[in-house]
Amino acid sequence: MKGYTVMRTLSLALSDIKLAHSVFAMPFAILAGAMAVPAGASAGFVAGVLGLIVACMVLARTWAMLVNRLADAGIDAENPRTAGRVFASGRLGKQQGWLIALGCAGFFALVCAGFWLFFENPWPLVLSLPVLGWIALYSYTKRFTALCHVFLGGALAVSPVAAVIAVRPEMLWTLEPGARAVLAIAGFVLLWVAGFDVAYALQDLEFDREKGLRSIPAALGWKGSLWTSRAMHAGAFGLLCWANVLEPRFGAVVACATLGVGGLLIYEHVVLARRGLAGLPMAFFTVNGVVSVLLGAAGVLDLLV
Hints:
Shape: globular
Number of strands: 0
Largest sheet: none
Number of helices: 14
């Protein structure tokens, strides 16, 4: 019975955190990790470091999302769109939620220690607590800045940089061309995520204004937010093109994927302009999921070829 209770508690806590949404950041972490793998590395090394990166990504995202739901429980309870979430509705207590979140943080640090234990790289463990703090910060930013969307983008943008540090940190310290390409990809992720989060936040425009919460939709309204989102995505596309130039191993596959991403971003904004909030499921989840998987797969394929 106790085991059933524990599993039910975990299931409830994770019910608001869709694992499938890891697709927004995971492909970029895997791609950056693959870019950092040294020439001639063994299959065991590649499988080991990429496996640890995937585990870190799942644990870090779970930590960050639980912190978000716990921090916003009171706000979510007053918002009809989010009132059914487990902590907002009271179906699960905050104490239980924090225990699970801290457990994820502990396992994250333990997995980071694996890079030191198996690959003699202490940096993931050294930086584990600062990373956890950074990705949790977003949950509190809407209380004091309309740039909360940029903080969310920054939380996801750290993933490719962290992956390089986990695989071959000297690549980043020396700023070789591949490292500069990773930084351009991180910049793409920041602006891409911030841009679609601005659009997503349009659902709560009136609620945010009523409760005094900060967001770009609350500050700029519908049209201003859409234009801000478009500008962010234009900047993101520019950084992605720059990454193509910086990384000599990227070829025709990534170039075609980049053009495809440009088309998908345009399509996303056409859907939002024509359908408004009704177009969010397509624009937010489907299109952006395709963007991340397309780029990640194309980059790894080009590296292999």
